[in-house]
């Protein structure tokens, strides 16, 4: 089965290719040729978005209803919004809830579409930088606990946020050695402690500026450690609520390809330890503490372009190429070229979503 995206534009590296026909055979981009139609391209084709931290979608908060059905509902809703790859995230919680989430992810794995696995944000965090996380579940990890967790996860745990200053080096090294992307977050690490953590192999940073030691002219904190490092990456929430757009703007200028977008999106929930209440264009806990966002990946990209002056090409890479490179999962479409899996989005000239193509099929 084949289909063609006619007379479209797409980015190739730092250039834009206009008036192109993209032929899809089965699930793969097979041919890209100049179009016979010489009228100005009315669409832009980009890779599907990759969100490495999202808690809920389609009316479901995964940790509140840790079932295969919840993951399936999240998948279908996110596909319609252009997210063709995501990690279902769960916050600090009881061991029983963690087990239920992991069991559901393992059961769902054989039929998964765009769910790539789990991101565990906690419980091995610093109590001084919890944000909306529940203090009673936070603790220091033991190596034995981590070994059991990774063994029980059987490959579905792709990413974990930890506070490295309160964890033993052997715990961090075990996670890295077993293919888990380790992210520094909810941490009160000093500049030196954070730098040491990145040097030991921690690859990235969870929601830059939020729930971490801040920049101060006498205490440079975690953000400065990220900026000064040559490899450390960071995610950021581009909703204008978690981080001011001017701050996002200068962070992108410093980090460039080391900064990527997440939504950190939640759904309204009135049960369990995470009772998210929608307030305007954000979510808060019942006590008013800022919790997750309400944006989509497409809105995050639009915000980067409109409010931060980031080029469209760079903003798209922040939501596609850079997270794909970090997570390192095969067959993630992050560029448009022949031989790539056809996970593609067609946008109009105002960046509205016209079509979602997943594995060659229009959603």
UniProtKB/TrEMBL annotation:
Tree of life domain: Bacteria
Active site positions: 264 (proton donor/acceptor)
Residues binding Zn(2+): 121, 186, 207
Keyword Lipoprotein belongs to the record: no
Gene Ontology terms describing biological process: N-acetylglucosamine catabolic process
GO molecular function: metal ion binding; N-acetylglucosamine-6-phosphate deacetylase activity
Cofactor note: Binds 1 divalent metal cation per subunit.
Family: Belongs to the metallo-dependent hydrolases superfamily. NagA family.
Name used for this protein in its record: N-acetylglucosamine-6-phosphate deacetylase
Lineage: Bacteria, Pseudomonadati, Bacteroidota, Sphingobacteriia, Sphingobacteriales
Gene encoding the protein: nagA
């Amino acid at each position: 089965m084949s289909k063609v995206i006619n007379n479209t534009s797409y980015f190739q590296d730092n250039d834009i290719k206009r008036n192109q026909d993209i032929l899809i055979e089965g699930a793969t981009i097979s041919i890209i040729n100049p179009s016979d139609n010489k009228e100005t391209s009315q669409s832009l084709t980009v890779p599907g978005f990759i969100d490495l931290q999202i808690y809920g979608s389609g009316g479901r908060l995964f940790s509140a209803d840790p079932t295969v059905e919840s993951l399936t509902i999240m998948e279908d809703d996110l596909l319609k919004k252009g997210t063709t790859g995501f990690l279902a995230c769960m916050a600090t919680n009881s061991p029983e809830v963690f087990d239920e989430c992991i069991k559901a992810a393992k059961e769902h794995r054989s039929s998964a579409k765009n769910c790539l696995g789990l991101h565990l944000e906690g419980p091995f965090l610093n109590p001084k930088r919890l944000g909306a996380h529940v203090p009673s579940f936070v603790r220091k990890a033991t190596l034995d606990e981590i070994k059991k967790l990774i063994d029980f996860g059987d490959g579905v745990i792709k990413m974990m946020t930890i506070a490295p200053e309160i964890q033993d080096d052997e715990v961090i090294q075990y996670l890295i050695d077993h293919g888990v992307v380790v992210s520094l977050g909810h941490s009160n690490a000093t500049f030196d402690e954070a730098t040491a953590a990145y040097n030991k192999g921690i690859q990235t940073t969870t929601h830059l500026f939020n729930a971490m030691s801040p920049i101060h002219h006498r205490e440079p904190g975690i953000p400065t450690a990220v900026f000064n490092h040559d490899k450390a990456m960071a995610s950021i929430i581009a909703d204008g609520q978690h981080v001011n757009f001017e701050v996002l703007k200068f962070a992108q200028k410093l980090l460039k390809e080391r900064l990527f977008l997440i939504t950190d999106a939640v759904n309204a929930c009135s049960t369990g330890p995470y009772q998210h209440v929608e307030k305007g264009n954000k979510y808060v806990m019942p006590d008013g503490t800022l919790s997750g966002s309400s944006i989509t990946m497409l809105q995050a990209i639009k915000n980067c372009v409109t409010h931060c002056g980031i080029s469209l090409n760079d903003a798209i890479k922040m939501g596609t190429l850079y997270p794909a490179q970090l997570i390192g999962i095969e067959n993630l479409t992050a560029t448009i070229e022949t031989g790539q899996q056809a996970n593609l989005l067609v946008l109009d000239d105002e960046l509205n979503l016209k079509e979602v193509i997943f594995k060659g099929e229009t959603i």
